[in-house]
Amino acid sequence: MVAVAERWAALTAPEETEEVYEALGAVKAAETALERLANDRANGIYDGAMGKHFPRLVAEAEETLTEARARYEALSGQAVDLTMFDDAVLLEEAWEAADLPLRRDLIRVAIDKITVTQAARRGAPFDGDTRCDIEWATPETE
């Protein structure tokens, strides 16, 4: 249900969701920059005359990381109503009340892929349980 909730949020509030992903990207970039500074220091890049610049660069990188984390936390706290996914009765009611485009959207957020295999022989009756494989939505890994 986590993946469905994430996708539903992206579908119903695309601008807000995109801002959250951008903020998360900024956090990852700031973490990478700070790690790169530490690795460069360990490799001796900031030995000698360059050493005087290292404290300033670290302070700037840490400030950037702090600001990026604060923005991400502020944006990721925005709530999208997901109550219908927690209650089977509400979900069924929402499904029954939904028009065709909304039903298609609900199916898209819940299913990644459907594979239908060939029948054992030509003219065989369709048996969906054995011939259809449904890949349900899974959360994106970061």
Give the total of beta strands. Answer: 2
Order of adjacent strands in the largest pleated sheet: 1-2
**Total domains, how many?**
2
Structural class: mainly alpha
In percent terms, what proportion of residues is strand? 5-15%
**Helical content band:** 55-70%
Radius of gyration, taken over Cα atoms and rounded to an integer in Å: 24 Å
Description:
65% of the residues lie in helices and 8% in strands. Helix 1 (2-12) packs across helix 2 (14-42) and helix 2 (14-42) runs antiparallel to helix 3. With 142 residues, it is mainly alpha-helical. The chain is elongated and about 80 Å long. The protein has helices at residues 2-12, 14-42, 54-76, 83-86, 88-97, 100-110, 128-131; strands at residues 111-116, 132-136. It contains seven helices and two strands; from the N terminus they run H-H-H-H-H-H-E-H-E. The model has no long low-confidence stretch (mean pLDDT 85).
Quick summary of this structure?
The protein is mostly helical. Helices cover 65% and strands 8% of the residues.
Secondary-structure blueprint:
Layout: H1 2-12, H2 14-42, H3 54-76, H4 83-86, H5 88-97, H6 100-110, E1 111-116, H7 128-131, E2 132-136
Antiparallel strand pairs: 1-2
Helix pairs in contact: 1-2, 1-6, 2-3
Structural key phrases:
mainly alpha, two-stranded antiparallel ribbon, 142 residues, single chain, 7 helices, 2 strands
